[in-house]
Amino acid sequence: MKTRSIAFRLISAVLLVELASALLVIFLSWGYERHIHFHAFDVILHGRADSVLGAVQDAEDAEDNVMLDRADLHLPPEDIYEVYDAHGRLLGRSSNWPVAASNAPPRQARDGFLHLDVNGHRYRVILRHGSRIVDPDEPGGGKLRRVVVLYGAPTAHVWNAIFGAVEFYAAGSLLLLAVTGPLIAWLLHRGLLPLRQLAALAAHVSADSWQFSPPASARKTPELAPLTHAMESVLQRLERAFTQQRIFVSDAAHELKTAVAVVKSSLQLLGLHKRTPAEYEAGIDRCLADTQRLEDLVAKMLTLARVEDGSAAGGAPLQATGLVSCLRHAAAHLDTVAALHRVRVAMETPDVEAAGVRVALGAEDCLLLVSNLLLNAIQHSPPESIVQIRLVLNPAEKAAELLIEDHGEGIDPAALPHVFDRFYRGDPSRARSTGGAGLGLAICKAVVERAAGSIQLTSQPGQGTTVAVRLPLATELPASPPAHSASINESVADFLRR
Amino acid sequence: MRVLLVEDEVRLADNLAAALRDSSGFAVDCAPDGLAGDDLAGNRCYDLIVLDLMLPKLDGLSLLRRLRARQDPTPVLILTAREGKENIVQLLNAGADDYLAKPFDLGELIARAKALIRRGKGAAHPMLTALDLEVNTLEQSVRRNGVLVDLSPTEYRILEYLIHHPRKIFSKRELLEHLYDYNWEHHSNVIEAHVSNLRKKLDAALPGADPIIETMRGRGYRLASEAERAEIQGQERS
Q1: Domain for residue A414, yes or no?
Q2: A167 found inside a domain
Q3: A261: closest chain B residue by CA
Q4: Which domain holds residue A431?
Q5: Is the Cβ of A258 closer than 8 Å to some Cβ of chain B?
Q6: Could you tell me which residues come within 8 angstroms of residue A401 by beta carbon, excluding any fewer than 6 positions away?
Q7: Measured between CA atoms, how close is A441 to chain B, in angstroms?
């Protein structure tokens, strides 16, 4: 179906309604005018018939008959009349009375109207019973003579009048239609002005300029207010997303440039003047380490981009992974790191059913999440302390809650709201010394959000930090193929390298 | 010359410090964050501050504003990984003297650092002269009356520092502060020994002349008032 403009639709609707009402007016006026005109016509016929009745005179004969005296009768020439007495005897008729149609009306015929065709013209004829009293001065009140008057007049001019009136109404309606069409179009054009203004304003919005200030009139117009609000909120969200993206790109550029600057300066330092082979070797090792850091940074950024891209593209992943086995897997892999830190990792899964708990995460992502959190906890634990892993099942909410608790130095409360920000390093000396680019927790958050879960960090400085991850259970999803240990091995290798 | 390097990226800070020490014999102190940088800069013993912009605790721009707010005239070279003209305009307007975008060329950084120090001391050219003394800060070579004088790195640094302000008296403490970073043990005796050696070497290049470095008792050292004499001579000549 072709989509017409709203203005077109509104105008056609109005014109259609107008056309319908015009037809109705024509129909009603036709009925009304017919009624009025024929009523008046009938009154005239009545009057003229009475005149004819008045012309019935005493014939002054022995039987006291009546006769029609036409002397004082002044009637329109095209009219026709006929007068009969009570016996059906014709008393007189107009000269143009159609003889063919003439037959004495039945005496019993009641008053009323009949139609005749005279020379091709349609006549309306009134039939009246009348009476004359002959010799009213005589004793006994005279003699009553009953007569029947038939009086007809052509209806053509009545119809003309009716059609004339109807034509007037019809012409008026058509004129109204013709005038209101463009008028409505113009009014609509004016009425839709705020909409066009809004569109013009919206057209100016771009990635560089988010300025969108709809006029107050648009806000107050009931039809435009929802649109205006929707546009404003959409733009605000878009701007926020854009700003975040911009900050991310800028931060990423900063990190990459810094990493490249390190590599470059390491190489240039080596070339500043002649050095001994041993110094060159050490220098090359440092350069390699610097390059490795650059590589790790890029890998982490790509991981983050992949996870965030996935959540943007397809919502929750369509695979499930056993959380407990994933935890065991990660813990086993991080054994060396834990041993190096002299930290013990303790796992506690009180629910028997928890053993089979599966969450809506791909095995790779699940391992990434768990190992990142675990590695974080181990790194921030003092020697001879315990990293406690707790897995609690929440059947009511169909969710699993994973708690990873360390007894490290904790996080500064001021830094706590920002720990999940990309490239955020709460304590630089700590973050740098652990080699983080400030992406680990951002990756964790992206993974958890992809699975429609939530992640929270609570910390008491000096006491330790607890990460709480809530993940919705996945019972229907197919099991994900087991993860490569690659990602985790990288983290370990990464750590051991430092 | 003593340089304060405020940079949170440890490896980069290490490299820069090594380069500045190796190539120019500067004393370099490193600060890992803005607040530490602010603390160190408060000692007013630096001839140049190399400042990263993205710093934890206190960002580079705020640190720069603090410096300038307390009338610290130390030249500041900004290291930035951010692009955009506005940013640079804002930096220069906030009192930065120069900037370098990461990743930068180490040689360029050293050259700019030297230029800023020079400018900060009122010299426009890397060749510094005081009467018959000629110091080439690029080659780190010294000539007296055209004769090359072989100086140890420390002796050279002392001379370079003195020649920037002929006639000004530098206390031993000031020399210590500007020539050694915090990694050194402070001993004013060290300065005395170096100055003594420096004087001997310089005087040996032009036998019979007045000692070129004067010791102002209890106050410090200054490059001989030959400079004053030179000025007077110059006025007479014109």
Answers
A1: yes
A2: no
A3: B103
A4: 316-497
A5: yes
A6: A391, A392, A393, A394, A468, A469, A470, A471
A7: 18
Structure letter (DSSP) for residue B209: S
Tokens of A8: 């077109």
Question: Quick one: CA dihedral A181, A185, A187, A192, positive or negative?
Answer: positive
Q: How many structural domains comprise chain A?
A: 2
Residue with tokens 């179906």: A1
| CA distance readout (Å), A358 to A181, A472, A479, A480, B204 | 67, 9, 8, 10, 86
Q: Cis omega before residue B103 (within 30°)?
A: yes
Cross-chain residue pair B102–A273, CB shorter than 8 Å: no
Per-residue pLDDT tens over the stretch B31-75: 988 899 999 988 888 889 999 888 888 888 899 999 999 998 899
**Least confident span in A34-48, A105-119, A281-295, A442-456:** A105-119
Q: Is A294 on the interface with B (CB under 8 A)?
A: no
Residues 190-209 of B with CB under 8 A from A: none
3-state secondary structure A347-396: EECCCCHHHHCEECCCHHHHHHHHHHHHHHHHHCCCCCCEEEEEEEEECC
Q: Which fold has domain B127-237?
A: Arc Repressor Mutant, subunit A (1.10.10)
Task: Please write down the HEC assignment for all residues of A146-201.
Answer: EEEEEEEEECHHHHHHHHHHHHHHHHHHHHHHHHHHHHHHHHHHHHCHHHHHHHHH
Please report, to the nearest 10 degrees, the dihedral formed by the alpha carbons of residues A409, A457, A496, A489 taken in order: 160
Ranges of each domain in chain B: 2-120, 127-237
Check if A421 contacts B (Cβ < 8 Å).
no
Instruction: Look at residue A393 and tell me if it is in a domain.
Output: yes
pLDDT tens sequence across A388-403: 888 888 777 788 888 8
Find the CATH number of the domain harbouring A463.
Answer: 3.30.565.10
Q: Does A475 touch chain B (CB under 8 A)?
A: no
Best probe of the B interface among A247, A256, A268, A432, by most B CBs < 10 A, is A268
CATH, domain range B2-120? 3.40.50.2300
- Find which of B6, B8, B12 to mutate to test the A interface (most A CBs within 10 Å of its CB): B12
Rounded CA separation A113/A126 (Å):
5
Mutate to test the interface with A, among B15, B53, B104, B108 (most CBs of A within 10 A): B15
Cβ-defined contact of A428 to B18 (cutoff 8 Å): no
With CB atoms and an 8 Å threshold, state whether B18 touches A269.
Answer: yes
CA angle B111/B112/B116 to nearest 5° reads 120
Compare CB distances from A432 to B10, B23, B103 and report the shortest one's residue.
Answer: B10
pLDDT of residue B75: 92
Number of H helices, E strands in chain A: 12, 14
Token couple for A201: 């304003």
Cβ of residue B102 closer than 8 Å to a chain A Cβ: yes
**Contact assessment for residue A335 and residue A377, using Cβ atoms and an 8 Å cutoff:** no
pLDDT in tens, A101-129: 556 555 567 788 888 888 888 888 888 88
Of A261, A293, A427, the CB nearest to B104: A261
Quick one: tokens of A446?
A: 């992206």
Nearest to A254 among B11, B22, B54 (CB): B54
Taking 70 as the threshold, does the pLDDT of residue A186 lie above it? yes
Domain of residue A39, CATH code: 3.30.450
